[in-house]
Amino acid sequence: MEKTMSIEFGQSVAQQLFTVSDEEFLQSVQWKSKPTGDLMKGAQSGELGRFCKGLASTLKSIGKQKRSGKLSAEMPWSTLWSVESVDETCRTSDLISLIGSARKLLARPKKKSKTAKRKETPELSWDEISRLLVGWIDQISASDPLQPFELLLLIEMLENLGTRLAPAALISVWRACLFSTVTLCFKLEETDFSGIPEDQVALISGEVPWRAGLFFSEISGAKNFRQLGQQNLRDSFFDRTDNDGTPHADFFPRLDYWLITLTRATYAGQVWGKKLWDQEALDRFQLSVEKITAACDASGQIALCPTHTVSHLELLSAATSIAGLPSRSAERLYLKSLQREKKRSGFFIQSEECASTQSDWAAYALMRNYWSDTSNLLVVNWNGELPVVSLTAMGKLLLQGTWEFSLTVNGENLTGDGEWSCVCWNSDEDADYLELQMDLDSGFRLERQLLLPRNQHFAFLSDIVTGTEAANIEYRSILPVSPELTGSVDSETHEMMLKTKGLTARIFPIGLSQERDFFQPGSLTFNEQHQLILQQQVSEASALYVPLVIDWEPDLKRKAADWSRLTVSEAGKISPRDEAAGHRLRIGTHQLLVYRSLKKADQARAVLGHHTSYESVIGRFDTNGDLNPLLFVE
After folding, report:
1. Which of 57, 80, 154, 530 is least surrounded, with the fewest CB atoms within 10 Å of its CB?
2. Beta carbons of 243 and 283 less than 8 angstroms apart
């Protein structure tokens, strides 16, 4: 063998090393310090038995560390959580299948009854697994090396059961992992990541260098490779979260994959005794995990994020623990309560801090009343052409999807520029409120209001169309209803009801007249695509207010309801409908007032005896007729 042939991180790898004998390959390894112990001395001298003894000792220590932790059931095989995030080849599928067989063998009890032995299907032995693993490794070549995900799978396999593999298999896997890791290290900076999802970029450029650098820590240059992965993970995390830890809305379709990578890398550092995060990064990671957990509904689903390989509940339970959230924190108690096999209905977690949050940078808002399996949760993002909403009412998913609209002005369809912005956010002990805005064609503007009270079971949503000149305006607000709900329309009024087991939601389009009238335009319908469509129109007006109240208070579901449009006045004169709008909704003895100024007033306006200079007012009247405000917006 030529003296120039060596293997170390940061250096080009001679392709001939892929085909040399195991003895020659081990002798080519450059260690970070003078060889000591069986691992390094065995490799230096080409003694395979001694090398295997040293490697097995290291793996035994790591395996014991992983088994002794609180997450010994969840995390040891957590690389499999990313299986759906990668383009899986037949080769990768074979490896996953082989790992599955090894896990079954690993979990097999030492003693079994004769009946159990007769019923069980034949299992592979460790010798057979070792032989199949060597055969799988033989598929790898210098021109077709291990893929990053395969590399993580094999490193994890060595950590968990390397001591059970036959020596030939152990060396074969270790050698293939090292060759591929060093090759990746040399080429990583030249890798083109365009078109690759951000979570995969974090896995390839961050997690793989970090975990491989830990695993091969005794080899020359491994520390630099590990630190490169550490820095790339930090950069990826900071670039995609706000200062308060809120992930950007762009990330939510694959948020779980991204969180899996960060959680797994953090855990690997804890196992190997190396911290992934400095204090600043750890603080933000904890905040981020808190924010994501707050978006978890009673079913264990992260709002606006599809479930992939692993359940969100299992992922979040691991992430909150690994991030270091206190065991008595509201987040961990909430997740623990959701995980109980025999959940007690209606659990409630006390918390001094509110989970609601909003970020302009992330184009994301979360409104939650409390930590419970019957909590109300409204999540909104506006990073795309249209806002996406998710509303959970008393633990049941009510709305989820894109909040669409259709606007016709003087017979012409108008659209927007797709640039939504948050113009108001208010969060206090009474309610959470969000207001969005987008510019439309022809000088028109669309605004949207979303309000979720803290101690009442309803949500308020509205659309506001404003222009500069009077016109004939026809507007449709289109809300996505959960497929599990059924809808029914009242035969005499515009009220609608949405139902599923454990939830009855009443829909009140208070901008329409209560009674159905052929001569009064407007409607509320529920179509086969599970869309709630509210249509309103107005003639010769410069603005249109389209409010909607969704009420799911159990005590009010059978109470009589009525609503009406209110007269708004300014200085003793009635304000035109395109300058101010007032509405009252009564359900049983509960009365709700909604007011919106559509044009700035010179003086305070009056509505139902209430004088105000605010732009928006939402509140409820008490038994004395006094208004208890939920919201004032200047």
Report:
1. 57
2. no
Q: Give me the residue label for tokens 């059931």.
A: 73
Q: Give the total residue count for the chain.
A: 634
Q: Look up residue 139 and give its two tokens.
A: 């598929």
Is 115 a residue whose pLDDT tops 60?
A: no
**Distance between alpha carbon 259 and the CA centroid of its chain, in Å?**
8
Query: Is the backbone of residue 280 left (phi > 0), alpha (psi -120 to 50) or beta?
Result: alpha
Residues 6 or more apart whose Cβ sits within 8 Å of residue 633: 424, 426, 433, 435, 614, 615, 616, 617
Position 134, amino acid:
V
Q: Which neighbouring-strand residues pair with 440?
A: 416
Task: Give 397-417 pLDDT, tens digit per residue.
Answer: 999 999 999 999 999 999 998
* 140 Cβ neighbours under 8 A, 6+ residues apart: 146, 176, 180
Residue 612, by phi and psi: left (phi above 0), alpha (psi -120 to 50) or beta? beta
Give the closest residue to 592 by CA, choosing from 634, 554, 557, 627: 627
Report the range of poorest mean pLDDT among 7-16, 207-216, 314-323.
Answer: 7-16
Q: Which of 151, 173, 150 is nearest to 161 (CA)?
A: 173
- pTM of the predicted model as reported, rounded to 2 decimal places: 0.93
pLDDT tens readout for residues 65-95 = 998 878 888 899 999 999 988 887 899 999 9
**Which helix or strand (DSSP H or E) is residue 436 part of?**
strand 431-439
Tokens of 104: 């079954």
- According to DSSP, the residues that pair with 510 across neighbouring strands are none
Kindly state the percentage of the chain with pLDDT values over 90: 84
DSSP 580-624: EEEEEEEETTEEEEEEEESS--SS-EEETTEEE--SEEEEEE-TT
Write the DSSP assignment of 8-54 as a string of letters: -TTSPPPGGGGTS-HHHHHHHBPBSSS--HHHHHHHHHT-HHHHHHH
Place of tokens 């300014």: 570
Which positions ≥6 away from 257 have C-beta within 8 Å? 82, 85, 197, 199, 200, 308
Supply φ then ψ for residue 272, to 5 degrees. -90, 0
Q: Which residues of 226-240 are buried (b: 16+ CB within 10 A; e: fewer)?
A: bebbbebbbebbeeb
Handedness of CA 466, 467, 470, 473 (dihedral sign): negative
Q: Are the C-beta atoms of residues 544 and 475 closer than 8 Å to each other?
A: yes
> Cα separation of 606 and 572, whole Å?
9
Q: Which residues are registered as beta bridge partners of 586?
A: 562, 591
Distance from C-alpha of 510 to C-alpha of 496, rounded to nearest angstrom: 12
d(CA 287, CA 244): 6
Residue closest to 252 by CA, chosen among 311, 204, 307 = 307
